[in-house]
Design goal:
Length: 244
Amino acid sequence: MRLDRILANSGLGTRKEVKEFIRKGRISLHGEILRSGKIQISDADKNDLLFDNEAINVSKHLYYIMNKPTGFITSMDIEDPNALVQILPDIFSHKKIMPVGRLDKDTSGLLIFTNNGELMHRLLSPKYKIPRVYYLEVDILDHVFNEDDIEEVKQGVWLNEEEQALPAELEIISDTSAYLTLYEGKFHEVKRIMHALGKEVTVLHRVSYGSIELQDEADSEIRELNKSECLELLESVRMKSDKL
């Protein structure tokens, strides 16, 4: 494939921007500066392309995480001023990189983004029982966290007369704070579980999703997942590495 097409497809820039990068000698391969966008690059060589001596991700699929701040809904609607897309890089819209699931406007924490549709579907499916871990703080409507809460969550909390949550795990930190691990992503599930336990959520922050954990990312910080992290995600939903 032509060099300029590979670079544009990677999200490095528009066709016009990519041509300018090439003209200025910012693209290299195996120590050689590439001066023409018409150069044909083999599949074997494209992963060795460098931009300002830094590796370029030319993968068909892209994988990112964000430490979502509160105050934004998980939406890619560019017309909505409260949508998370307003603070995402342009490449997310350009490459159709979408969030895996949603976090409410008043919820912060880990969001995974990808344009790998099959992986997204599997990560969201309750079939694969991917754990989502949340840190939460509550106001007490009935009683403080206790062993009965742990057991009820373990058995699956009844959200109403007809709907029961899947069995989950509650780790108590204090009378009013805990970690909750869910294996599905029902609408407002954390808040509904807590309400059924006689508590109202005041702080909700997702710390991990499957094998991916927030590290020291600041509010709104975005980083690309490394290859090892991506492969762990695929393995967790029984996808082969060639689907990366």
